[in-house]
Amino acid sequence: MPDNRPAHTPTMIVDAELCAAGITAQIVRFDIPEPTDTRHAVGAGYHVNMCLTPRPLESRGGYRERWGPHRFERLGDIFVIPPGESLYIRGGSGRQASLVCTIDASLVHDLLGRDLPWDDAHLAAALDIGSAHVRALLFRITAEVRHPGLASQRMLELLGSELAIELGRYGLEVSERPMTGGLSGWRLRLIEERLASDLAAPSLKDLADLCGLSVRQLTRGFRVSRACSIGDYIEQRRMEAAKRLLMEGESVKTIAFAMGFASPSSFTFAFRRAVGASPSTFRQRQGRALASMPSVAA
């Protein structure tokens, strides 16, 4: 049967799916042939997306109905769309794989004891979730979806409940942030530029000097702005860069020394802890997944 889709239509393939009470988890692959400007509408549940391959650097998200047509914020490796909202995603072509979870809103709100207020601050914070606890749970869910074991649905149900709690805690942390005390936009941009320009991890003193602050002011202000520690954020960004280099064919040894690790084995340990797989396993797994994507005609 002929394929009548337009030549540049993005495609999505569900590789694996696991469902349990309150949560559906899928491993999906996307083929996005050119930069996009798409609307992602969410129904009654929370949509959680964790990129398993590097997310394109140009990817931005915005809530057009809330923010207007011109405001777009950076999409992190993990983002959440709350119930009833429409996220517009702009930019970022290529092939990528993600874990996509849909969690019943009632599960989050019942565990939390109340609804979360999805105001401007919460929406912005949900576009780049740096929580190490959320990340660890999503990696466990990914492993369970890929290789279901004994009582896999029950396991997913338990992990889904934990994830709902962590999302609720993250939302409460945003609610309890002081109205002032965060880093200014230009200081956050300086930190981003430093992390993008050099793979080696900067010291907190280096970043504090860059921003004209004390280390204490930097760490406190960063947590207010990003709802995670600056150390976790630096590690997250470094591992994003490592994933991109692995997919580009760089050797583990080259990446390890470029990132300032003492040896390839120490880099492998850090990568496995952050990503849930060794660098070689990550490259092989994602290479196979992306190679099997259907090609889109030019």
Give a written overview of the molecule.
It is a single chain. The protein starts with 10 loop residues before the first strand and ends in a 7-residue tail after the last helix. The protein contains 12 helices and 9 strands. The model has no long low-confidence stretch (mean pLDDT 84). A hairpin with a 2-residue loop joins strand 1 (11-20) and strand 2. The strands form 2 sheets. Strands 1-2-9-4-7 form a 5-stranded antiparallel beta sheet. A 4-stranded antiparallel beta sheet has the order 3-8-5-6. The protein folds into 2 domains: 11-175, Jelly Rolls; 185-291, Homeodomain-like (Arc Repressor Mutant, subunit A, Orthogonal Bundle). With 298 residues, it is of the alpha+beta class.
Low-confidence stretches: none
List the domain count as a whole number: 2
Count the E strands: 9
Overall residue-averaged pLDDT value: 84
Question: Beta-strand level of the residues, as a percent range?
Answer: 15-25%
GO molecular function, one term: sequence-specific DNA binding
Domain HTH araC/xylS-type: 185-285
Protein name: AraC family transcriptional regulator
Pfam family, one: HTH_18
